[in-house]
Amino acid sequence: QVLDGAGLDVDFHLLSPKGETLVFDERKSDGVHTVETEDGDYMFCFDNTFSTISEKVIFFELILDNMGEDGQDQEDWKKYVTGTDLLDMKLEDILESINSVKTRLSKSVQIQTLLRAFEARDRNIQESNFDRVNFWSMVNLGVMVVVSAVQVYMLKSLFEDKRKSRT
């Protein structure tokens, strides 16, 4: 998401480890892309060459799902469990509830981060508009002062006696 800069747009490229273009967006202000990955190094680029005069502030978030999850880590805790038949709630149910809470918490953190990015972009737009309004208000004030001075001068010149007085 482009937070600040002229036009609020930027080009985006995403290349696979094989060098294939997976995503190419031209002059977009924001976007969400989901890609099925394979092993290797991916390359992404935010390109602002079409607008080299103005700099841009970019917010991006890279979310990696299922990173480092292997079945062994999930099953290790079961070897320490003894006497689970005595409990009303099984440990599998507790683990499922904890994982559900963890997933929902991570989703809420992602949404809050995205909302902060929207707020930052909107604040930058508001500050730019504030500066623009102040500048044109000062120009308007200057024009009004000049016009009033010219009117006073013109009014004074109407009442001046243009005849030479004889002494």
UniProtKB/TrEMBL annotation:
Membrane topology: Single-pass type I membrane protein
Pfam families in the record: EMP24_GP25L (PF01105)
Organism domain of life: Eukaryota
Cellular localization per UniProt: Endoplasmic reticulum membrane; Endoplasmic reticulum-Golgi intermediate compartment membrane; Golgi apparatus, cis-Golgi network membrane; Membrane
Alphabetized UniProt keyword annotations: Endoplasmic reticulum, Membrane, Signal, Transmembrane, Transmembrane helix
Cellular component terms per the entry's GO annotation: endoplasmic reticulum membrane; endoplasmic reticulum-Golgi intermediate compartment membrane; Golgi apparatus
Transmembrane region(s): 135-155
PANTHER family: TRANSMEMBRANE EMP24 DOMAIN-CONTAINING PROTEIN (PTHR22811)
Protein name (database record): TMED5 protein
